[in-house]
């Protein structure tokens, strides 16, 4: 009995350490949101939502075996994975720049191809997504960092031609504010 007692004392410490290691750096989600804000303004995106950290999505993500496929993916969330948080923000921006150079036909084909899989880093700038959770996962002996975004199971991209005349922030979810202005609330629609 006395041998088991120290185990219970140390157990909470290991749970806390594991939880802290699983979380992305503080600037990761805010960096993604800054990119989302930039694209909302640059491309006149009427419905670009701020991504909010979601413990519910994290609870979905943590038990997933990243080497398997899931039937419930692409119903209420989508995913992407990458090698490190540090390099990811610049990679997202590079991918978005490359994607914006595609013809409308190439964009349509890429979205159709990604409808049964993932659009990789582009998932993080899908304007309709409102929530995010990230955690390390093992796949074929390597550690990947995985983010899932929700609540949309399909990929939607804003008009990348630069021809949109929409007003940024004018068509966001009803719980979001900011249509035409930035306000102090827990949810933001980017303008």
Descriptive notes:
- Keywords: Signal.
- With 191 residues, the chain is an alpha+beta fold.
- The chain has a single domain, classed as Pathogenesis-related Protein p14a, CATH 3.40.33.
- Helix content is 37%, strand content 14%.
- Strands 1-3-4-2 form a 4-stranded mixed beta sheet, with helices on one face.
- A hairpin with a 2-residue loop joins strand 3 and strand 4.
- The longest helix has 19 residues.
- It starts with a helix and ends in a 41-residue tail after the last strand.
- The N terminus is likely disordered.
Quickly give the CATH architecture: 3-Layer(aba) Sandwich
Percent helix, as a range, is: 25-40%
Please tally the helical runs, counting DSSP H or I stretches of 4 or more residues: 5
- Using DSSP, what is the number of strands? 4
Number of domains: 1
Task: For the largest sheet, list the strands in their spatial order.
Answer: 1-3-4-2
Bulk shape: globular
Give the amount of beta strand, in percent.
5-15%
CA(first)-CA(last) distance: 61 Å
Mean pLDDT: 76
Low-confidence stretches: 1-20, 179-186
CATH topology: Pathogenesis-related Protein p14a
Signal peptide: 1-17
Keywords: Signal
Summarize the entry for a quick read:
This protein is α+β, with helices and mostly antiparallel strands and 191 residues long. The protein is built from five helices and four strands; from the N terminus they run ααβαβααββ.
């Amino acid at each position: 009995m006395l041998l088991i007692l120290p185990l219970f004392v140390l157990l909470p410490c290991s749970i806390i350490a594991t939880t802290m290691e699983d979380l992305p750096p503080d600037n990761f989600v805010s960096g993604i949101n800054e990119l989302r804000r930039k694209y909302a303004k640059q491309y006149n995106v009427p419905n670009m939502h701020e991504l909010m950290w979601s413990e519910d999505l994290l609870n979905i993500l943590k038990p997933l075996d990243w080497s398997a496929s899931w039937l419930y993916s692409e119903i209420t969330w989508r995913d992407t994975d990458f090698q490190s948080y540090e390099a990811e923000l610049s990679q997202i921006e590079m991918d978005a720049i490359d994607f914006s150079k595609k013809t409308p036909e190439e964009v349509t084909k890429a979205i159709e191809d990604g409808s049964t899989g993932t659009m990789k880093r582009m998932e993080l700038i899908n304007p309709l997504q409102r929530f995010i959770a990230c955690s390390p996962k093992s796949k074929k002996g390597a550690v990947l960092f995985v983010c899932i975004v929700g609540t949309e199971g399909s990929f939607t991209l804003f008009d990348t031609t630069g021809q949109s005349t929409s007003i940024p922030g004018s068509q966001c979810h009803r719980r979001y504010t900011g249509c035409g202005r930035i306000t102090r609330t827990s949810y933001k629609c980017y303008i």
